[in-house]
Amino acid sequence: MSSLILAHTRYQALEQLRVPIGLLASSLFPAISMLAFVVPFAGGDPLAATTATGSMMLIGAMSAALMSLSISVSQDREQPWNPYLRTLPAGPFPRFAGRILTTMGMMLISVIPVLVIAGLFTEATITVPRLLLGVAAVLVSSIPFMLIGLFIGFAMPSKAAIAVSQILFFPLAIVGGLMMPLQVMPAFVETISRFVPSRGAGELVWWLATGVEPKVLPLVTLVIWTLVAGAAAAWAYRRDEGRRFS
């Protein structure tokens, strides 16, 4: 089984490298946001700069998890190679695992420009253990977004997946307090943000990266979103399986 997972991971990684626009988008957008917003407005405050760096890392991971994953899954479903893979006796797990590992690799690449900019142009400070915890938190908190991406990819054609993933990404990033601090937004946005997964993901990353005590409700919401998104992704896969092979 491990050899099959590695084979699918290698295949998915090569596909990403051959058409690297998704990887570039996941890396460039948070890096540009760092230069445009974090460096001039929060770069001189160590805590604010470190928190904002965590937010930008999470935005890059969300982009890879939500947009890139949903689009790649929906496009794969339209290729003749995909029905053949589904007939193989290994089952769906190796393909899913390979896709998830490839997406996590994209996430790790996307955080590198953000960390470089933070180190060169801001007063962000962090210890090595907290940095590792922060990166791990980015990967863990991206799980619900990967599941949402899988749901979109299995439930919709590629053109619809492109539009829906983009429509979801930006409101989630803004309402979750990742694009700008919630303190500068209307009070009702802060209330709503407690019930979106991006706020819980942010709370987890900020806590492990800076030590700031998190709020409990957003973390509970993150767990609930993970369970619901997992059930929705499984349903979408079974629905697609039934339509194509029943």
UniProtKB/TrEMBL annotation:
Q: Which UniProt keywords apply?
A: Antibiotic resistance, Membrane, Transmembrane, Transmembrane helix
Predominant place of localization: membrane
- Which stretches are transmembrane? 21-43, 55-75, 96-121, 133-155, 167-189, 216-237
Matches recorded under InterPro entries: ABC2_TM, ABC_2_transport, Nod_factor_ABC_transporter
Gene Ontology molecular-function annotations:
ABC-type transporter activity
List, for all copies, the residue spans of the domain called ABC-2 type transporter transmembrane: 5-200
Gene Ontology CC entries for this record: ATP-binding cassette (ABC) transporter complex
* Pfam families from the UniProt entry: ABC2_membrane (PF01061)
Per UniProt, subcellular location reads as: Membrane
**Which PANTHER family does this one have?**
NODULATION PROTEIN J
Q: Could you identify this protein by its name? A: ABC-2 type transporter transmembrane domain-containing protein
